[in-house]
Structures are given as C-alpha cells and as structure tokens.
Design brief:
- The protein starts with about 30 loop residues before the first strand and ends in a 9-residue tail after the last helix.
- By secondary structure, the protein is α+β, with helices and mostly antiparallel strands.
- β4 and β5 form a beta hairpin.
- The chain contains six helices and ten strands; from the N terminus they run ββαββββββββααααα.
- The strands form two sheets. Strands 1, 2, 4, 5, 7 and 8 form a six-stranded mixed beta sheet that branches.
- It is about 40% helix and about 25% strand.
Length: about 425
C-alpha cells in the first residue's frame, strides 16, 4: 500500500489587477471633477485625531445627457435609482475615512447643457486623520477627506475619477467661516489627488483625496509651557545664593517637581503617541538641567565646585534654548517655503489655464478669419470668371454661353447674349 504524500498542496494564486489584460477590463465611466468647496472645518481634535468638515463636490459626465441608460430616473426623487444610471453611480460614492456615516446635505443629478450630466454631492461629518506631531507645537497638518467609489475597476460596471477638467480656482476652502483662527491658520486652497485603493487581490477601487492645509499657531504653548520651563531651568542658578547645602537640594527638588507637573500639562494636549515631540524634547532638556543641579548637591558637600557648575549650568541652558530656537525657526521657514511653492504652483496652473484659453480663442478666431478670407477669394474668383465669360460672349455673339456662365448671369442679374433680342 502506497503511503500518502504529506506535501501541502500548492497555494492558490488569485489573479491580481496587474495580470488582467486590457481586453478584459470594460471601459469605465469617467467622473470629471469640476468643483470642490470645503465650506466649513471645525473641531480639529489632535487627541482623538479627527476633524469636522462640510464639503461640496461636483462631477461631470461628458455626453451623459445623450445616454438613455444614464438618464434613467433623472427627474425622480426619493425612489430607488435605476441600475447603471447616473443616480446609481452617485449612490456608490463612499467617504472612506469618515468616523461615522456623514449627514447628506445635497445629493442630486442634473443636466449640464444639452450634452453633459452634473453630479452634486454635499455632506457634513467627522473624518479620521493621523496627525504628525513630531514638530508639535510648530507643526503643519494635512486634513484629508477620502472619497471612494464602490465600483471596482475590474467589475462589471467600472467607474473612475478624472481630473482633466480640474482647475485650481475650483478647489477652494471657505476661510471666512473657520472658527479656529486663533489656533490654526488655514490655507485658502486644497489639493486633489486621484489614487487607487487595492482592497484585495484583483479588486481596485478609485479614490479621490481632498487635502486642506493648516498651520498651528504656537503662541499658547510658548507662553504656558516653553517660557515657564525655560525660567525654571534658569532658576537653578539661584541655588548658589543659598549657603546651606541641604537647602540647595530641596530648592532644586521643588523645581524638578514643578517641571514634571508642566510635563503632564503638555502631555494632556497630545494623544498617546510613542515618540517625543519637539515640545517634549524641550521639557526633557530643561528637566535634565535641573537634574544635573540635584546630583551635584547630592554628591558635593562644599562650595569648591560652585564656579564650575555655574558655568556648566549656564552653558547647558544657553545651548538648549539656542538649539530649539533654531529648530523652530527652521520649521517656520520650511513651512513658509512650502506654502509659497504651493501658491506659485496654483498661480502657474491658473496662468497656464488662461494662456490655453487665450490660445484656443486666438486659434478659433484665426481659423474663422482664414475661412472667411478663403470664401471671399472664392467669391471673387467666381465673379472674375463670370465677367470673363460675359466679355467673351459679347465679343463673339455666335458663341453659345456655357451652363456655368448661365448660372453666373442668373446670379449677377445680367442677360445672356442674344436673349435681349
């Protein structure tokens, strides 16, 4: 009897989207992004890592009004949309990073002119965002709203986003209603990025990322944490005015406990993260300066090292504040440079868009003028030929005019030779 093999069967390899040939993919319905308006941003919660926003999105389906399937149930409201209709594709749009189901403010499909369809969607809700707090409180955050369609690219009714019609002037943020101006500075424009979400092997879903940019104003933390901690570290220099050594130790211990209390105040403004922020590093550095003074008085019982330790403490304090001051300045400069680069890119996009519009208008006008000149030349040529035929007919009465000449005489309103008689 043959012993059965214990070798495991070969794994099943699922067909991925990259292995699918272009012939197997059906043509996808293109949703061209026309307008994005983030009308409100509030409750930017760095502890829960969420933010509240109200966003308006408009798409266009080119030549969609000429498709009967897409126009099914266009005028119906409150009913189940027809399969493969424009309303059905609008229902398939999902908010990928929503903390809960957003409140739908507006959702409708209208005709845009005689050929296109307009899909409008406006929602309000809470969205998840992973905050990058390495440079807190001089940090810069990207608040991203992720929109995804449930129609897979490899499915039977594929759909994809398109940005051919996108302009920077149509991607705006309403900064007038921004209620957190004392804490954040909100940029007036947003960025739109089209990507793909691979949910599983062989299934990819188009995604649209709408990113708003906010910069934190660090004044609150500078006044309430940075300045007191720097003063506490500097106050360790006052221990040399105390002659009794145990009193020096008690004074430094009091400063250390105070700095620990301020560390808890700074930690209460942050989520439970596994790395140190810029503010944490500053607080820890000031605490280390206080610890140096504590260990000095714990192991030294006379005043012979006061002069040396005084210079060491002052040098550590100056180097710490100079280092973090330069780090803060570099961060602010880098954020300012990136902001100006984004503004320059948007300005270039607007300039290129206007230049393209002017070029297209100039080209169309030039083509129209060339056509008009060509038509005028053709008319002059016909008139010259007709006049030549008339002259030849008058000079030779026995010659019969050609059919073309008869047509020209009819156009010019002249009589053919011999008809006057």
């Amino acid at each position: 009897m043959r012993r059965p093999s214990l070798r495991p069967p070969p794994p099943l390899v699922a067909a991925s989207s990259s292995t699918l040939s272009a012939r197997e993919l059906k043509p996808a319905l293109k949703l061209e992004l026309m307008r994005v308006d983030v009308r409100q941003i509030k409750d930017v919660d760095q502890i829960a890592q969420t933010f509240h926003a109200r966003v308006f999105v408009q798409f266009r389906i080119a030549n969609g009004a000429l498709d009967e399937v897409l126009c099914k149930g266009l005028d119906e409201r409150g009913t189940e949309p027809e399969l493969k209709s424009a309303r059905w594709f609008l229902e398939k749009l999902e908010w990928h990073n929503a903390a809960s189901l957003p409140t739908v403010v507006t959702k409708m499909v209208n005709k845009m002119g005689e050929r296109d369809l307009s899909l409008v969607l406006e929602v309000e809700g809470e969205f998840l965002e992973t905050f990058e707090l390495e440079n807190f409180p001089i940090d810069y955050q990207e608040l991203t709203i992720k929109l995804r369609t449930a129609c897979a690219r490899e499915g039977g009714m594929p759909c994809e986003f398109c940005q051919h019609s996108m302009k920077s002037s149509a991607l705006n943020v309403d900064t007038a209603n921004f209620s957190l101006k004392n804490v954040w500075r909100l940029e007036p424009n947003i960025d739109a990025t089209i990507t793909t979400h691979h949910a599983m092997a062989g299934r990819s879903y188009p995604c649209l990322f709408l990113t708003a940019h906010v910069h934190r104003k660090p004044g609150f933390y500078v006044v309430n944490v940075v300045a007191p901690m720097g003063l506490f570290a500097l106050m360790t220099m006052l221990r040399f005015r105390i002659d009794f050594m145990p009193s020096r130790l008690g004074f430094c211990m009091t400063l250390l406990l105070t700095s620990v209390a301020y560390k808890f105040v700074a930690a209460s403004s942050l989520p439970a993260i596994s790395y140190l922020t810029l503010l944490d590093k500053f607080v820890v550095s000031c605490s280390v300066i206080i610890l140096i003074s504590i260990f000095e008085h714990a192991f030294t019982l006379d005043h012979e090292f006061d002069y040396v330790m005084g210079w060491i403490t002052a040098s550590c304090w100056a180097v710490t504040h100079l280092f973090f001051g330069l780090a803060a300045w570099r961060l602010k400069r880098r954020h300012r440079r990136h902001r100006r680069k984004r503004e320059a890119d948007r300005l270039n996009e607007k300039t290129l868009s206007r230049a393209a519009s002017v070029y297209n208008l100039r080209t169309s006008v030039s083509e129209a003028m060339n056509d008009a000149v060509a038509d005028a030349k053709a008319d002059l040529r016909d008139l010259r030929d007709a006049a030549a035929e008339i002259v030849l007919s008058v000079s030779s009465p026995t010659r019969s005019p050609s059919p073309n000449a008869l047509g020209r005489h009819a156009i010019l309103g002249t009589a053919t030779p011999g008809s006057a008689s």
